[in-house]
């Protein structure tokens, strides 16, 4: 009797979960899958991201000591937790960013197919959809990216419990909320979006190229191997590598604009994207535009690979229909709607 009651409860619970699963809109499932993928991927490469930012922003005490020297210095001054300084803001940004990015990509792709049913369903469609989706996600989450960079730029000497590398006024950020509040009080909304120009210039081609290369590579994979996780990881790695290399200089410009007010060694003043780009080339040399690129290769390969793979796995786990099934269903429903309207008139 007891076993039958337990079995009945389990079946009822499964029925409720199945009902929730079936009633949940596809866009919500894609948001959830994208958010999980972004959070997992970003946390996995947080130590390399911290060192990359320190290189990009030319902290004097991190110049010329290399990757392993930087790791040793962070461990010596801040401990292991130093590798994850700013990662809270990073994850807080990347979860909504990745969720919006993947969901918007899928949505824009569906809208384009819906508006132009005869369009080629190849990688060019992914390039356009990915580019627009990247811009949408950046505009929605940029203030958190700015906060993440400022927090990561600060270095704490553990023995003195003091922040170093800051301007003489001693402005210190003690967390995400504190940093965002101080920026807003000083410069308003404009301050929270400082550096958004190069972010948009960079994300449009990077996001589009990332999806383009990923889908292009998958199109050459035999059908029976497309669900292989190793294959997904390989396709994602190459996609991230190519996309990031092409757009990396704009990432350097963005980082330097974000930390300009904190740096003790800022050469001159630069208000915009192109002024900052010219200043970097003139005062720091063109090689600075690729500073930290080798670390970025180490970071991007696992990050993009993990991101795409976790996203695909999450979509499968959440039972998100294949893209073509969703597109065909939307077009069919639209056709029925038009037919019904014509019949009634």
TrEMBL record:
Keyword set includes Acyltransferase: no
Gene3D superfamilies xrefs: Mitochondrial carrier domain
Main location: mitochondrion
Single GO molecular function: coenzyme A transmembrane transporter activity
Keyword Protein biosynthesis: no
UniProt GO cellular component terms: mitochondrial inner membrane
Functional note: Required for the accumulation of coenzyme A in the mitochondrial matrix.
Record-given protein name: Mitochondrial carrier protein
Species assigned in the record: Dendrobium nobile
